[in-house]
Specification:
The structure is a homodimer. Chain A is mainly α. Chain A is 74% helix and 0% strand. The longest helix of chain A is centred in the middle third of the chain and has 28 residues. Chains A and B meet through helix 6, helix 7, helix 8, helix 9 and helix 10 of A and helix 6, helix 7, helix 8, helix 9 and helix 10 of B. Chain A binds a DNA duplex through helix 3.
Amino acid sequence: MRKRRTNDPEGMRRRVLDVAEDSFQARGYHASSLGDLMAAAGVTGGALHHHFPTKKALALAVIEERVAAAVEETWITPVRAGPSAREGVRAVFEAVAAELEQQGYVRGCPLNNLAHELSLADSDFRVALAGIFAGWRQAIADKVRDDQRIGGEGGTDPDRFAALAVAAYSGAMSMAKTAQDAGVLRECLAGLESVELSSSQNGSAAKRRRRVLRRQTIR
Amino acid sequence: MRKRRTNDPEGMRRRVLDVAEDSFQARGYHASSLGDLMAAAGVTGGALHHHFPTKKALALAVIEERVAAAVEETWITPVRAGPSAREGVRAVFEAVAAELEQQGYVRGCPLNNLAHELSLADSDFRVALAGIFAGWRQAIADKVRDDQRIGGEGGTDPDRFAALAVAAYSGAMSMAKTAQDAGVLRECLAGLESVELSSSQNGSAAKRRRRVLRRQTIR
DNA sequence: TTATAAACAGACCGGTTGTCCTGTTTTGTC
DNA sequence: GACAAAACAGGACAACCGGTCTGTTTATAA
């Protein structure tokens, strides 16, 4: 009875990244030992070292391939596809809140989790994470600019709105994680929507609000 | 030549907490070894163990005594003393931004830094940190309620405003830390101030805004 | 087939970590 | 001054961590 082995570099790499991503989010980078990861992924030290020479290289891969993809999937794509930037932001907030309430616990934002632990630790980490933040904000700001070019969307500063949206989400997730309660997300969203009153919006309640805005504008 | 020793429990405890607080913020909890802390504080293992039996106990003391105090000092006290909640929030944002720009680097928010690393690690950590977050938000919300009782300050929901302010600050600090640039704080503050347009405010432009709100209320 | 490199296995090591333990000194109290 | 408790010193240790190293198996291409 011979023991066969099947070389599957991509599959093995993926399995390691799966486990690493999960553990880094749940326990953090420093609290995740390579031994635990190897055991969880069913991978030997030799294989791990072959694909990721150091722990830092592994974390960098998680950041660039997984965390960036997570932001892309849960934020950038929905916002781009949405009817407007504001509506997209609202939809993401509510979708995340609903998902968290359903699953019963809050792990926090993947990007923020790693950003807090690794930004000051290593410059390579910091740059990679900062790039994801920048892309996130720019996607929202670009959407606002599109809204302005097409429809109304008054004098909202795109960069300001994007920065506030990302900051509010990040901070809300931080609190939700600490309190283990996703309710804060909904409260922050409600606060964020007050910003809409100062400018126009597409949607069912748009006319009423636009009227208010007009009065406000002509003073 | 005799070697004298002066027992100074409070002083030694303070010195350890100083070093621990600094290291936990700069390097994080897991990346801070007790050996480093002992060396930096000039404290022996016996003394450290006498005041803080475990590393967890030390971190808990840092959270309850130092982090809570930092939030109290930089946020709660200024907001309470300020002319209004909104003005207080604005002042804190600007003060922190100015301080960070002056010192050239961004270490992030003490509370958020530890909250991200320790919330999921241990329930005791989580509860302590969540309490600080709650106190922070409540102080702002109470101030809004005071404003409403005294002056105008229209239909702003106190809890929503507080949650948004804390979230925006936390998230902005997170980005500022990752980008090593305090500019995001100013952008988020500017975005936050748009919220003011949806309700009234004490100050020069209060009357105009209050009129708008009244129209809105009676529809 | 055969050579060649990639893919993987698994033991090994030096250094570090947090904690514990035994002793010594200082301080407060009667 | 006697004595107990607190305050401090400093070594010891077992567990663990990340990285390296050598060797074996599998895939690839000539």
